[in-house]
Amino acid sequence: MGSSVMRRVSVRSLSSHKLRLVLTVFSVVLGTSFVAAALIFTSTVSQAFNSIFDSAARGVAVEVTAAESDAPGVPVELVDELRNKKDELGIDRLVENVGGPVTVADSSGKPIQTGGAPSVASAYLPPDRAIGDSANTIVDGRAPAHADEILINNDAAEKAGLHVGSTTTVVLGTGVSDPLQVTVVGLTDMPTSTGGFVGIAFDEETANQYFSDGEYVSVVDMSAKPGVSDTQLRDAVHAALGDAKTVDDLYKVRTGDQVREDQKAQVGEFLTIIQAVFLAFAAIGLLVGTFIIYNTFSMIVAQRNKELALLRAIGASRKDVSRSVLLEASIVGVIGGLVGLGLGIGIAAALLAFTESQGLPSNGIQIGATAVIAALLVGVVVTMLSAWIPARRASRIPPVEAMRASTVEPGAGSLRKRTLAAAIVGVLGVLALVVGGLGEGTGPALIVGLGALLAVIAVVLGAPALSQPIVGGFGAVFAKPFGTVGRLARTNAVRNPRRSAATAFALTLGLMLVVVIGTIGTSFKGTVNDAVDKGVTADFIMSSTNNGPLPIGIADTVREKVPDAGVVISQAVATAKLDDKPFWMTAALGGSLNDVAVIKTEQGSLDVPGDGLAVDESTARDQGFELGDKVSLTALTGDVVPVTITGIYEDSEVIGPRIVGADAYRKLVPVETMRQAVPIWVKGKPGTDVDELRSQIEDVTKQYLVVQIQDREEFKNSVSSTVDQMLVTLYALLALSLAIAVLGIVNTLALSVVERKKEIGMLRAVGMARSQVRRSIYLESTYIAVFGALLGVVLGLAIAIPLVRTLAYWGLDAVVIPWTLIGGTLVGAAVVGVIAALWPAVTAARTRPLEAIVES
Predict the structure, then answer these.
(1) The whole model's pTM is what?
(2) Where are the domains of the chain?
């Protein structure tokens, strides 16, 4: 039979079943929309950042900075050497600058919210000395000339309600300065000012006073003499700084182009993570949709037995029939891809609107060819793969089937081989989960991941065999109140186990992920709560409202000005290198951590001397440390600081893995980069009223703008709130896959009603009321939904429990199972079953007995 005839048959089949077409298309739409949204969103943000970075470091031929962000910078003596060799090296102009993080108050006295963008200060350089972006173009006012004057970028000033003549507060993130009261004397236009970025500038003398000890500068920019290329100047400067390896360890010597590319690469890494998350959820949606599409086409083939057999009888070959089904699938895929692309554009636009409100830049939505092609390709490929087995089945329908009235789906016979394969894969999966769960760290976690994959495959293969005893079991219990209708629903739910399992799997996968994520989240919250309850004796924990470090002067202020403060201890971060690898520690400044926390010491003491280092058991084991060992730490300046292991303590989430002595801390961390880490611990004097103590702390710290003061319960709640916000975001994304699952149940039941039209008509003819027909469909749907939910819960717990145990290496102490969430998901599954059955049930109830019985 001609291919054109078969194409017309396929198109007419789709056009004559428009509702079936819509339901099938929606199985593809949500997955493809996530793919399109991920590509469009990341492409748009990436292009916006690239356009900004293209204007960064303009006019700069070579830039020299410290190799590490926490390092103090470039030594002044090296800068002087470069300046003395300007002509020899080919340097035209050399500019040095200092700066650091700041918090600036708006017109109402509250900190300007940056949405995650930097808030930094630098030194003002006049145009005749500046290079490229170091020249701040003043659009209003004048340059700062005194210590209490600043410039601020125009965008930030407008957002904060500041103008020339405004007074405001500036809190330095480094050094030991108290909050500064300053006057805005000028507004600047910065090419790189975007989103929530806040940039202020002091005069040079003041900036050096606040951000340098006179020995280091933050950035050194150079322009090249005519005839000297950027690369030539970079190589010459690199050689002039000293030994190549030492230079690379301490400094970054880059051309202006390299600076811009490195900035783009940093944003690219961030966007890659976002894109990966989106694509992961797209994959989940597509996987769920695959089962629904497979189910749909299987039922379509079953319902078209007579039509396809007649086509065979009048000359259509097996290939013609299979190609006809695959053609239908390709049309569904193209439509699904196009609709998914449109929805993806909408999702990306909504995300961009949100990120713009939070300070991220955007130059308008960018819809590239990649997103369009990906959406269409994914839609077509997924649909074609899903329909391949039903297409093969359709091609095997013999012409004699045209003489039969039955539309029972082929292939619903023995499940023996499939169940045996499921048992083998399941045993391997359980073994991997158990073995992985016995260990800690990345390796065991990967073994658990393998076990999870095998377990999912086992469920896919074994679900049809499980559906009969499980659905039959709880179906028998729940059927009793409904009598004959309940028994009929139970029979319908298990009559085709393959179909029931494929329909339920959509819910299984979604709820499995909900349980896994929920268990990790509640286990993390449980670990934090337990650590605070058992390990913290401080009355208050001080931290920053913007999750950054607190200014170093705050602890001293509380210690000196709060009369009821008995113990004030701050933990300050120190970064060094050990065997050329990053090695971070905290220093307990102001006392011993034993005064504010309960820590079990295994060896030595936690009263760390100035040149000592106390480590937890995990660090001691990993590094091979023993009590009394001498350890050489390399500061980011290159200086070697020797310390002695003076204590080994039980792993603690409260104080961290390594505590260094105060003297060693000051050698490792220069004054210009010192920042208080969070938290600062405060414990009142004996007999102190804690409410009065809080009031005193608030009075002396409100000038610092970013300080939040929490008692133990508030601290636990803030951590729980942060975790809950993350979980809600993940659940919202997973809800889309559950929406596909609901559509799958609707689709299956709707097609099932068509398939069983004559059967329903006969039941109506012998006295079954419309309400009983509807009830039987509701129950059937509920049984399938609850079956899928039960499998999802069991599978989720089987994966989550060993996975959390492997995460003990990163601090999770115990598995906390979210029973409330699990109970809610099971109840929710029953509700989903009823909601999904509403339309198919109404359709079934409207079946006219005589028309259904006589229909051929």
Answers:
(1) 0.73
(2) 1-57+258-410, 58-257, 466-537+712-856, 540-710
